[in-house]
Every structure is written in structure tokens, then in C-alpha cells.
């Protein structure tokens, strides 16, 4: 009967939705304590200059290692962290950790050429009145110079509060901190902001790179991005390189930097250190096959 169907529907949907809501609530509560419980870990993914195969730096990518030793991807908790406002603290924690790590590698002599670390920031960070003060404190505490730090933002930052953002960029430039526009090409804003803001690098989103996978593919969009960037004197980093075909395409197009599983996935501090050690022991400036110790 209709009544039974109605009841059945009620039983199918409501408990499930209740379940999802409860799980989300539990996760949010866990997330609030993620810093005090020291459950965040930073992974590092190498970034390579295409012209000479030199390692130029790392992107810092956060993971959540739960007490049950589960590793949660940022995709699954950053949006939640943004909702409950804890993202500000998470970003600053990652920033401090990444600066400390790079400074440590510098002091250990594990890295000699001017490698940098790039840290992702949520749009919310730019509306914090003490953002620059926090940056200054972190640089002072860790001893890292601004020239070795890059900040990755998305174009939302430029749209949401253009005037404030302009002022913050000025402050960052004074500290020689570079600004990278992440996930380039996936947003909705016009290209004019590239001219109106001092962007140092754009990172072409993986979705465009994965389209360049066979010899028939037409990398028109990526080529167009390269042309715009070249015109504006902005360097280009291609994200998510997984195949040699993609790499060869990017080489042909004159892309400056590359990053992706082809070279290395993001790895924890220990693995990166092993890798850097094998570099310096063998006196390598670069590594043509990019074999990582497993
Ligand atoms: P993103 O900044 O665009 O980072 C690149 C993502 O692509 C990373 O995912 C990286 O692991 C992944 N990736 C790199 N190379 C390849 C490849 O060859 N193939 C594939 N399939 N994937 C590749 P991850 O680490 O899961 O991070 C996802 C996103 O979470 C990041 O995207 C960034 O937007 C955000 N995120 C990560 N760490 C932080 C953080 O500390 N703060 C903030 N606010 N966001 C962060
Ligand atoms: Mg990024
Ligand atoms: Mg990206
Ligand atoms: Mg992203």
C-alpha cells in the first residue's frame, strides 16, 4: 500500500541521513583536536625544473594520521576544516612545520641549491587581520628566509577581497615570498587578474595534463596557458604528470616546472631524507631517472 511504501521510504532515507550527519559530527569533533593531539603530518612532493631535471623544491601537503593509524587525505577533511574554522590553525601549523623542515634540511646540508617549499593556503587565511604577523613570526621562529617560501592560493582569493589581497601581496613581495596560483584553469574568474596581481607562478591543474596522454591529443588549452603566462612573465608549473608522453608534450611547450607521480608522489619526511641523502652521497646535481628508494 501507499502507506507501507511511504514507511519504507522513511526507513530507507532517514536513518541513512542520520548516520551521515552523525559521522560528520564525530569527524568534526575529532578534527577540532587534530592539532593538540599532534595528528597532522606533512608530506612533501618534489618539483623539478624541466630544462635541466634539477630539483627546485617541494610542495607541502598535509595528511591526517588518526589515532587508529588511518591516513586521511586532505580532500576528505580540508572542506570540513573550512566549515568549522579550524583551517586557519591547520594552515599555520603546516606552514610552521614546512618552514622548520626546510630550514633543518638546509642546516644539515641535505640541500644545497636554493630549494624552496610551497605551502597551500585556504582562502580564509587572507581575511585574517594577523596573517602577515603570523608569517613574520613563523619565519623568525624557524629561521627560514622568505625567499625559500612560496604560498599557493586559488583565484578565489583574488575575487573575494581584491583590495585586501593586493595589500597582502605587497607585504609578501617585500619578504620575497612568491605567490603561486594553484589549480589554474579550473575557476570561473576572468584572466585579467593575472595582470592585476603580482603572481609569480601558475600551476596548471592536473585535469588539463591528463588530457595530453597520446600522440593524437591536442594540448591547445595548455599551449594557450603557456602563451599567456610567457606574455606576462609568469612561470608555469604543470601538476600531476604521470606519463612520459605528458612530460614530452610539456617539454615541447616550454613548460618550466613539473610535479607528479612520474617523478615522485608526496612522501613523508623520512623518505624524502633518504632520497636527498642518496643524492648528496652520489654527488648528484640531478637525477635523470628519478628512482626513489622505496
Ligand atoms: P593541490 O594543492 O592542487 O595539490 C596537488 C594534489 O595532487 C595533491 O593531492 C597531490 O598528492 C596530487 N598529485 C600530485 N601529483 C599527482 C599525480 O601525478 N597524479 C595524481 N592523481 N595526483 C597527484 P593531495 O595531497 O591529496 O591534496 C589535495 C588538495 O588538498 C591540494 O591540492 C590542496 O588544495 C589541499 N591541501 C593539501 N594540503 C593542504 C594544506 O596544508 N592546507 C590547505 N588549505 N589545503 C591543503
Ligand atoms: Mg597546491
Ligand atoms: Mg593544484
Ligand atoms: Mg587543489
TrEMBL record:
Alphabetically ordered keywords of this record: Coiled coil, Membrane, Transmembrane, Transmembrane helix
Record flagged with keyword Transmembrane helix: yes
Residue ranges annotated for the EAL domain, each copy included: 24-280
The protein's name in its UniProt record: Diguanylate cyclase/phosphodiesterase with PAS/PAC sensor(S)
Species of origin: Stanieria cyanosphaera (strain ATCC 29371 / PCC 7437)
Lineage of producing organism: Bacteria, Bacillati, Cyanobacteriota, Cyanophyceae, Pleurocapsales
Amino acid at each position: 500500500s501507499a502507506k507501507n511504501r511511504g514507511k519504507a521510504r522513511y526507513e530507507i532515507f532517514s536513518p541513512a541521513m542520520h548516520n551521515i550527519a552523525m559521522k560528520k559530527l564525530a569527524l568534526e569533533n575529532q578534527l577540532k583536536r587534530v592539532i593538540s593531539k599532534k595528528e597532522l603530518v606533512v608530506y612533501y612532493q618534489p618539483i623539478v625544473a624541466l630544462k635541466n631535471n634539477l630539483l627546485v623544491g617541494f610542495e607541502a601537503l598535509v595528511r591526517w594520521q588518526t589515532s587508529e593509524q588511518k591516513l586521511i587525505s586532505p580532500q576528505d577533511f580540508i572542506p570540513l576544516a573550512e566549515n568549522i574554522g579550524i583551517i586557519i590553525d591547520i594552515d599555520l601549523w603546516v606552514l610552521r612545520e614546512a618552514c622548520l623542515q626546510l630550514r633543518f634540511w638546509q642546516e644539515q646540508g641535505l640541500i644545497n641549491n636554493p630549494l624552496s617549499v610551497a605551502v597551500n593556503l585556504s582562502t580564509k587565511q587572507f581575511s585574517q587581520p594577523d596573517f602577515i604577523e603570523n608569517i613574520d613570526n613563523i619565519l623568525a621562529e624557524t629561521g627560514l628566509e622568505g625567499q625559500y617560501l612560496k604560498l599557493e592560493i586559488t583565484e578565489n582569493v583574488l575575487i573575494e577581497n581584491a583590495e585586501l589581497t593586493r595589500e597582502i601581496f605587497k607585504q609578501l613581495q617585500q619578504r620575497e615570498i612568491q605567490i603561486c596560483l594553484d589549480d589554474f584553469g579550473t575557476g570561473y574568474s576572468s584572466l585579467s587578474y593575472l595582470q592585476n596581481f603580482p603572481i609569480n607562478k601558475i600551476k596548471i591543474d592536473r585535469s588539463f595534463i591528463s588530457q595530453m596522454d597520446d600522440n593524437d591529443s591536442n594540448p591547445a588549452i595548455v599551449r594557450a596557458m603557456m602563451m599567456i603566462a610567457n606574455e606576462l612573465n609568469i612561470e608555469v608549473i604543470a601538476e600531476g604528470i604521470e606519463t612520459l608522453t605528458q612530460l614530452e608534450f610539456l617539454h615541447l611547450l616550454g613548460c618550466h616546472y613539473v610535479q607528479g607521480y612520474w617523478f615522485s608522489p608526496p612522501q613523508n619526511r623520512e623518505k624524502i631524507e633518504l632520497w636527498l641523502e642518496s643524492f648528496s652521497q652520489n654527488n648528484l646535481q640531478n637525477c635523470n631517472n628519478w628512482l626513489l628508494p622505496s
